[in-house]
Amino acid sequence: LKMFWFYLSVHLLMEAWLCHSIKVPTTSSQQSFKTDLFNFYHSLILADGKETTIHLLKDIPKRYYFVLEEGRALAPFSITVTPCDVPIEWSILVHKASASFPGKTTQGDYDTQEVSKSQKAPSMVSTIFNYKGNSVETYMGISSHSTLYMLEFLSTERDTHITVYLTTDTTSGHLYPELPMDPRIDVIGIGHTTVTLTWKHSPSLLQHREDIQYCLLVNEKHNYKSLCAAETAVRSSGMKLPPALILSLSPYLLEPQQVVILSNSELSIINKASSGEVRQICMGTKNTYTVPNLSPSTQYYFDVFVINLLTNASAAYTGTFARTLEEPKPKVAELKDEKVIQVVLDGKKQKSYSLQYQAMHKKIQFTFQMCHGQVRVHITKNGRTVASENISGLRYFSLKGKLLDTYSVQLSSTEKSNSSVKVQVSSRLHKPLLPLLPESLKIKSFSKVRTCNSVTIAWLGTQEESKYCVYKKRIEEDQVWMELQSADRCSGPESRPKSEKVLCKYFYNINFQRAVTTETIKGLDVGTLYLFDVYLFEPSGIPISYHSKVVKTRKKC
C-alpha cells in the first residue's frame, strides 16, 4: 500500500510538472501539445542498478524519469550514458522542493558539457546538467530531499541507440571496470607488418581477475570511444556480428566474411568488408600485445576495452593509432645486353628481386629459365605493366617500344622453398627473337632394345643445326627421388665431371615432325640405374637442359 501511494504521488507529480512546463495550449500550439503528451505517456521510469538500452529516433526526444525516495539523507547517485554511434544531446532536469542540489561530472577531453547552478524559479524545474557529444559521460550528484528527475535524450543526426546506467548504491562496487589513472595505450614497437602495444592494468583486475579480460579492436578508419560504438560500426559496415561477440567465448555461427583464429588462449575475429579489415582480439589479462599480419605503410587505429565477463559491462582506454613501416624497396640490378644473370629467391620470406634495363633498340627480348622451383615475373615499361605470369620452365617475352624505354623486371618466389632463375635480355636484331626450341624437352627410353650393358634414348631436336651433349651418372635406388628433385635445370655441362660425358653431336631436320634423334649408350653395368641428361646449345647462348631420365639396365640377358 505504501508503494502504491508512492508511485501514485510520482505520477501526479509528473502530470503537474508536464502541465506547468507545457502550459495551456492555444490553437496554434495544439499539435505541439499533442506531441508532448505523446512523449510523456511513452516515457519510462529508469531502473536503478541496471544498464538500460534506449533506442532514439532522429529529432524525436525521449524522456526517462527516476525518483530519489524521501528519508535518505544526502542520497548519492550517478548516471552513466554511453552513445553507441553518433553524438547525442542529453540533459538532466529536476523538479525539486529545495534549491540545494550539489553535483559534479566526470570530465571529458573534447566534448562540450555544462552544469548549471541550481536556482530558485517559480516553476521549481531546472536543468542541472547538459551534454552533447559521443563520449561516455558520467554525472554524479547528491540529493537531500525527495526529488523527481527527468533525463531527456535527443539524436539530431540519425536513428541510434545508447545505454544508460543509473545507480543510487555507490558503495558496493562498480558495474563498469575501472580504468587506471593513465588510460592511454602506448605504442612501443612498429614494424612493416606488426605493431606492439602496451597499457596499464585496470584496478578491477586486482579484485576480480577471473572475471576481467582485455579485448583489442583494430581498424583502418578511426578510434571508438566505447565497445558498443565499435560493435555498431562493425554491423553498419555490412558485417553481421554474433551477439556479444567479444564478450562471450561460447560457440557461435560465423558469417562467410568472418575468420576466427584461436591460438595461445587468444581469440581473434577478422571481419572482411569493402570498407577495410576489422580485427577483434581478446587476450585475457595480458597488457602487452603485438598485432601481426598488418599491411605495410598503412595507418591503423587501436582501441583496448577492459570487460567484466559477469556483467558484460566495459570501459574504453584512450585509443591510439600507428602507421606501419614502408616495405623495403628491393635492390635494383642493371641488366646488360646479352649478359646472363642468375637470381636466387628466398621463398620463406617471400623476398623479391628487381632488375632494370634501358632499351637501345625498339625490339627487345627477355629470356627466363627456371633452375629451381617457380617464380612470378612482372615486367613494366615506363611504369606500365606489359607482362605478368608464373614461370616454371623456359619462357621468352618479345617486346616492342621506343629507344631509351625503361623496363623493370620484378621477380618473386611462389613457393616456400628457394627458387632460382636465369635472366637474359637481348636487343641484337641479327638474331631471331624466338629461338627454335623442341616441342618437348622430355627424354624417352626404349625398353625393348634395352640390354644388360646398353640403353637407347631419344629426344626431339629443332629445325636448325644445334649441338647436343649427352651425360650419364650412376645412381642407387634410394637416390632417384632426390636426384630428380634437386636437379638444376640451369646448370650446363661445365658443372659436370668429364667422366660423365658420353658424347656430343650436331643434329637438325627441316621437317620438325622428323626432328628426332636417338642414341645408344653402351658399356654400362648389368642391372644398374643410370641418370641421363641431354644439353642443347642453341644461338641464344643459354644451354637448354632436357628433363633428366632414369633408366636401369637388364639384370639378365
TrEMBL record:
Name the UniProt record assigns to this protein: Protein NDNF
Organism: Pterocles burchelli
Entries under Pfam families matching the protein: NDNF, NDNF_C, NDNF_N
PANTHER family according to UniProt: NEURON-DERIVED NEUROTROPHIC FACTOR (PTHR14619), PROTEIN NDNF (PTHR14619:SF9)
InterPro entries linked: FN3_dom, FN3_sf, Ig-like_fold, NDNF, NDNF_C, NDNF_Fn(III)_1, NDNF_N
GO biological process, one term: nervous system development
Cellular component aspect of the GO annotation: extracellular region
Signal peptide range: 1-21
